[in-house]
Amino acid sequence: MAEGEVDIASLEDSFKKFAVLGDTKATGKELNGKNFAKLCKDCKVIDGKAITSTDVDIAFSKVKQKAARVITFEEFKEALQQLSCKRFKDKDEQEALEETYKLIAGKSPIIHGVTKATNKGGVGRLTDPSKYTGTHKMRFDETGKGKGKAGREDIPDTRGYVHSYRDAGTYDQKVKGAVASPNAKKT
């Protein structure tokens, strides 16, 4: 591989990272239009002058199959070829394509605007599980971590003969007295 060339494997790796973004069922073999536009924006293929988001959408539409909503890696390379000629006008076709590949190779999606928790005003009081009462209090443990399903459902105690018997395991003490039970206290 020459000094100016880009490794196609790293380009394909970036393609796969953007292909699975936001879709838990994605395999990484096909890229949708939204993620293609994000790839172009995050990797600075869109510069706002020579290439705009409209140009990216047009290139995507030209290379995809008629009824398809996604493109494969080969179609992705075709779209980049169309965009590279427009992005790097002063270079020949192959050099422009290499420059575009360099912009994309090895990059990952940039996650913008991840919401951070705040505790200002009433939010802190409302989100502090130590201040919860009633049935809401039972959904969290002492540290404030949720109990999951055990905290959402009233799971019945099915031990014993009678449902929800409060004094389970004390039958021998009550019926037979202190003599029959080895755990009974002597007075």
Automatic annotation (TrEMBL):
SUPFAM superfamilies: EF-hand (SSF47473). Transmembrane segments: none annotated. The keyword Cytoplasm applies. GO terms for molecular function: tubulin binding. Residues 125-163 are annotated as: Disordered. InterPro entries: EF-hand-dom_pair, TPP/p25. PANTHER family: P25 ALPHA-RELATED (PTHR12932), TUBULIN POLYMERIZATION-PROMOTING PROTEIN HOMOLOG (PTHR12932:SF9). Residues 138-157 have a biased composition (Basic and acidic residues). It comes from Petromyzon marinus (Sea lamprey). GO terms for cellular component: cytoplasm; microtubule. This is Tubulin polymerization-promoting protein family member 3-like. One of its GO terms (biological process) is microtubule bundle formation. It is found in: Cytoplasm. It holds the Pfam family p25-alpha. Belongs to the TPPP family. Keywords: Cytoplasm.
